[in-house]
Amino acid sequence: MDDANKLELFEQTMVPHLDAAYNLARWLTRNPRDAEDLVQESYLRAFRFFDGFHGGDGKAWLLAVVRNTCLTWLGKKTGASNVVEFDEQRHVSREDPGNVEDTLVRRSTIDSLRDCVEGLPAEYREIIVMRELEEMSYREIADAVAVPVGTVMSRLSRGRSRLLDCMEAKA
Q1: Distances (CA, A) of 136 to 42, 58, 168, 169
Q2: Do 130 and 142 form a contact (C-beta atoms < 8 A)?
Q3: What does the alpha-carbon distance between residue 113 and residue 36 come to, in Å, rounded to a whole number?
Q4: Are 134 and 20 in contact (CB under 8 A)?
Q5: Angle of CA points 111, 116, 118, to nearest 5°
Q6: How far apart are CA 11 and CA 31, in angstroms?
Q7: Whether 70 contacts 28, CB under 8 Å
Q8: Rounded distance between C-alpha atoms, residue 99 and residue 144, angstroms
Q9: DSSP code, position 13
Q10: CA-to-CA distance for 135 and 137, rounded, in angstroms?
């Protein structure tokens, strides 16, 4: 594929997802300026490796690039890993999962919910953002994060549980 066709196809496939890319980067970095820089770097990487995109969902593929770029940057910045310890008490189901969303909607305000999302570990925060804000399917998230669908569902459940705990503590 020549460069002109590559650029045209890239623009048609990836540029419509610019807002989603920024949204994910913003939530992962917790900083708008860093997010802008990382989205720009992500798009450059995505274009460079666009030959590796073999069709399918461009949004999931692009968000995987954004995620990896952000996590690499965060790892260099903090030198810390993204390991989350399993806390049995925190992950015990206290309510019907359908009520968790209802409880969040009833008790939350935009600012306190934003604080709670920002307080989540990155592996839960990215799943929450992709599912709830970007409305991606479990399969799309699994492709973007390179984990099985079951892991996406587990992280989403645990992330929602932590959000509920945080919102209850603020109430």
Answers
A1: 19, 12, 27, 29
A2: no
A3: 23
A4: yes
A5: 95
A6: 26
A7: yes
A8: 28
A9: H
A10: 7
Alpha helices in 49-148 (DSSP H): 58-78, 88-91, 97-107, 110-118, 122-128, 138-145
Cα separation, 127 vs 134, in Å, equals 10
Q: Is 82 helix (H, G, I), strand (E, B) or coil?
A: coil
Q: Is 85 helix (H, G, I), strand (E, B) or coil?
A: coil
Residue 170 identity: K
Query: Can you tell me the distance from the alpha carbon of 145 to that of 152, in angstroms, rounded to the nearest whole number?
Result: 9
Instruction: Write the single-letter amino acid at 11.
Output: E
Domains and CATH numbers, the chain: 3-78 (1.10.1740.10), 88-170 (1.10.10.10)
Taking alpha carbons only, the member of 113, 102, 141 closest to residue 24 is: 141
The pLDDT tens digits along the chain (171 residues) read 677 888 898 999 999 999 999 999 999 999 999 999 999 999 999 999 888 888 877 899 999 999 999 999 988 877 655 445 545 454 444 545 556 666 556 544 678 888 899 999 989 999 999 999 899 999 999 999 999 999 999 999 999 999 999 988 987
CB 34 within 8 A of CB 72: no
